[in-house]
Amino acid sequence: MSAASHRSRTALVEMRGRVVAIGAVAAVTGACAPTAVAAAPFHAEVQHAEVRGERIAWYERGSGPPLLMAIGTGSTMSEWDPALLALLARDRRLIMFDYPGVGRSSSRRGGRTSFAGMADTTARLLRVLGVARADVLGWSMGGFVAQQLAIRHPRSVRRLVLAGTNPGGDRAVLGPPADQRIDSDPDPSDADVLRVLYPRTRAGQAEGRAFLARLERASDRGTIPDDFRVPATTVRRQVAAEHPWLRSNANARALRRLRLPLLVTGGREDTVTPPANARRIARLVPHARLALLPGAHAFLFGERVRFARLVQRFLR
């Protein structure tokens, strides 16, 4: 399978009930303190779009030019770090969605899954939403979908951001076999999830637990949908789609023909998708920009402030 997938979804579902959220202490203001008018809190409103036999769940946050967010294998639209979304939504209309058969999306189609097919469905989703052209951010397996979207539907993509992904074929650099096994497991342990997503240091693992706590709080408050369900059969189909991705160099060849602006990012300590993949993609695409940040596979969450700044500057 591809080193870019991550299997955090099932473990996160189980962890939601076990993570102890770091409670916020309410501040009590004095009677004479001036009263500030607080902005209405954001609440995620899940909607559905009919896309050629697929009922695709999606929600949006923020306003401005559209930025489509494509997440990784076995994950739902609720598993983006809420803190990262809050930063990106300051000047963008973020569009999060569930792939067919994932979370709140349904699929009437059975059989095999391919990243080309997922990209086609994503392009149709944009058209149904009335989005003629969007910026696209793809993380992990979502980076495969994003690459195929840009290659197969170039008029739908203005600028492309890739995070923790690979170009496929013999250009892909895989991580250690033990991490690949965790990555392909539809039901990993909590410890294994944190082991592959965050640096294997005390601070790195603490950051991973803080991320899970943010998911818990955001779900409780309605900032993200309570949407953490992915059937094991769907995960296995996504994993199976990674085999032809690694066998063929077609995607890597097509990247050479891309003429849209591309920002490629990676985590310096990523063992699921080693940073060499980001370097290789950057060399394939003319005029691509490359940025490697501290952190492992979830570097964009751990370094969310720096990552958000990079993305915001690139998309201007």
TrEMBL record:
One of its GO terms (molecular function) is hydrolase activity. InterPro entries: AB_hydrolase, AB_hydrolase_1, AB_hydrolase_fold. Keywords: Hydrolase. Residues 168-190 are annotated as: Disordered. Residues 65-301 form the AB hydrolase-1 domain. This is Alpha/beta hydrolase fold protein. It comes from Conexibacter woesei (strain DSM 14684 / CCUG 47730 / CIP 108061 / JCM 11494 / NBRC 100937 / ID131577).
